[in-house]
């Protein structure tokens, strides 16, 4: 794992955009996107580079990591609506280049399996942007999800529903289930960029990078991936035992 520690959120966004930009420049690019607050400054930075003519997203298709079950696509808190608002509209990616499972499908289990097949059919993800939950989840793979999981219907923990309730009027409005790419599905992305900012992520990040490979911390599965870049600010990096060593490695 490459671990890059940056002074603040703005520097994290620039470094993450630098990691994604070369792939966006290819004629076609399958870009895996996460929702949540962590990647938003990176999306803004990519939008800034698009506005200045530095980057062009016409060959980019985006693929959602996960989607709430039970919310129609048009719901303002569906991840489809969220990614439009946070990213794709600003870089001119049309709606028919946004791929994701339909959380409102009649059979969400079949929908999950279908999305997994779709990811394979399109040739897989070139670069996957990830955040990390306070409990170490990636996508909606909560602790004790199978490390071998494919795209599936996941039950959200109370902590995750509580954390995400800031986007809803009340906690009872937060869906209890979601369709998420599984940990094995995510691991098939050719490259992965995980973004972590703020002190609330520090223990999950330390467990993901330095803890044992364990379903207790789903993000630890990334230790097995050959091309992962973790970009953290100082606050998120504060519990890393080997922080000095990561700094030394990235300087050489
Ligand atoms: C959500 C999403 C994840 C995201 C995580 C952290 O539950 N399913 O993809 O990484 O929360 O979100 P935030 O970046 O807002 O802390």
UniProtKB/TrEMBL annotation:
InterPro entries the record matches: Glc/Gal-6P_isomerase, Glucosamine6P_isomerase, Glucosamine6P_isomerase_CS, NagB/RpiA_transferase-like
Keywords: Carbohydrate metabolism, Hydrolase
Protein name, entry field: Glucosamine-6-phosphate deaminase
Domain Glucosamine/galactosamine-6-phosphate isomerase: 10-224
Record bears the keyword Hydrolase: yes
Any one GO molecular-function label of the UniProt entry: identical protein binding
Species name: Hoyosella rhizosphaerae
Enzyme kind, highest EC tier: hydrolase
GO cellular component: cytoplasm
CDD domains: GlcN6P_deaminase (cd01399)
GO biological process: carbohydrate metabolic process; glucosamine catabolic process; N-acetylglucosamine catabolic process; N-acetylneuraminate catabolic process
